């Protein structure tokens, strides 16, 4: 067994404020929400990708609360592509080829027995307009050298729809572990 070297997502500068925003949102309670699941399905269709995830990141965990082409559940943040997307501050975080990007090249989701990801794009979810509590992402086993304007618009629309859906839901705020 070889040594796996990749860069876990950096800790956001606004870690404390993000944590409060996640807890206050109650977004982790949206697990398997039908509308959020439909949004991920539309991302798969619009971008022609094999999987789309709606993830909330809190402390050391990535909560995949809705997905199409991949299971929902709690995962270790250190392997999270979305963690990188959140700290990037970009409206659309795009990695055309995960296998050649040093942040992801040896990640178990990119290289090894669990490998199934080569292309990744994500748009941040900001309920308060400031702190990215999560991301909606598109993942595919085939690399893409570019991302079209239509795909960028589809990701922005999906992020907006997911943000609106979370704003509609009423949750009791809780601590997420």
Give an overview in words:
The chain has 177 residues and is an alpha+beta fold. The protein has a single domain, classed as Beta-Lactamase (2-Layer Sandwich). It is built from four helices and six strands, in the order H-H-E-E-E-H-E-E-E-H. A six-stranded antiparallel β-sheet has the order 3-2-1-6-5-4, sandwiched between helices. Helix 2 runs antiparallel to helix 4 (149-168). The chain starts with 14 loop residues before the first helix and ends in a 9-residue tail after the last helix. 38% of the residues are buried.
Shape: globular
Largest beta sheet, briefly?
6 strands, antiparallel
Distance between the termini: 32 Å
Q: Label the CATH architecture.
A: 2-Layer Sandwich
Task: Give the helices and strands as they follow along the chain.
Answer: HHEEEHEEEH
Low-confidence stretches: none
Strand runs, count:
6
Strand order of the largest sheet: 3-2-1-6-5-4
Look at the structure and give the CATH class. Answer: Alpha Beta
CATH superfamily: GAF domain
Examine the coordinates and then state which fold CATH places here, giving the name of the CATH topology. Answer: Beta-Lactamase
Number of domains: 1
What portion of the residues fall into strands of 2 or more residues? 15-25%
Radius of gyration: 15 Å
Number of DSSP helical runs: 4
Average pLDDT rating: 88
Structural class: alpha+beta
Question: Which percent bin holds the helix content?
Answer: 25-40%
Q: What assembly state would you assign to the polypeptide chains in this entry?
A: single chain
């Amino acid at each position: 067994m070889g040594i796996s070297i990749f860069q876990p997502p950096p800790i956001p500068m606004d870690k404390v404020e993000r944590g409060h925003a996640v807890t206050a949102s109650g977004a982790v309670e949206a697990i398997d929400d039908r509308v959020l699941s439909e949004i991920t399905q539309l991302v798969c269709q619009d971008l022609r990708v094999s999987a789309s995830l709606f993830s909330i990141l809190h402390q050391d965990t990535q909560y995949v609360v809705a997905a199409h082409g991949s299971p929902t559940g709690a995962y270790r943040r250190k392997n999270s592509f979305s963690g990188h997307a959140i700290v990037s501050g970009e409206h659309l975080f795009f990695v055309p080829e995960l296998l050649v990007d040093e942040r992801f090249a040896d990640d178990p989701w990119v290289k090894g027995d669990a490998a199934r990801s080569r292309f990744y794009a994500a748009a941040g979810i900001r309920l308060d307009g400031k702190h990215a509590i999560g991301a909606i992402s598109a993942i595919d086993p085939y690399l893409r050298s570019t991302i079209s304007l239509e795909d960028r618009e589809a990701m922005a629309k999906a992020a907006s729809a997911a943000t609106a859906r979370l704003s509609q839901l009423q949750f009791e705020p809780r601590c997420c572990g």
